[in-house]
Design brief:
The protein is an alpha+beta fold. About 45% of the residues lie in helices and about 15% in strands. It has a single domain (about 5-105), classed as Uracil-DNA Glycosylase, subunit E. It has helices spanning about 5-20, 40-50, 80-85, 90-105, and strands spanning about 25-30, 65-70, 70-75. It has a 3-stranded mixed beta sheet with strand order 1-3-2, with helices on both faces. α1 (about 5-20) crosses α2. It is globular.
């Protein structure tokens, strides 16, 4: 359930942007907060607005892939100083997620 009208409007905008950009294969959700996956949840709501709901709702995690309709949503920790200094996110970890997104999108290396 959406928490506010502005959240709903943001989801519609993201869903519209995905449609307009022709994004039809993969999207990466960068997670900036430890407990509340805003980007992940927002992407799932936007995909639901496009008619691609997913039940049960996929849980966020770094490197997690969730197939939602024709899309694959990839989870990635945000490269914040806290995540990088502590080793929670390393360069090879983010590179792996971005390579996977590139491969799913059918782009050349």
């Amino acid at each position: 359930m959406l928490r506010s009208a502005s959240e709903s409007l943001s989801d519609v905008r993201l869903g519209s942007a995905l449609s307009l950009l022709g994004v039809d294969r993969a999207a990466v959700a960068l997670q900036s907060r430890r407990r509340v996956p805003f980007a992940w949840d927002g992407a799932l709501r936007a995909l639901a607005e496009l008619g691609h709901g997913s039940r049960p709702r996929p849980r966020f995690g770094h490197g997690v892939e969730a197939v939602v309709g024709p899309f694959t949503l990839l989870g990635c920790f945000y490269p914040s100083p806290r995540n990088t200094v502590t080793g929670r996110l390393t360069e090879p970890m983010i590179d792996a997620v971005l390579r996977r997104a590139r491969d799913l999108a059918g782009l050349m290396p």
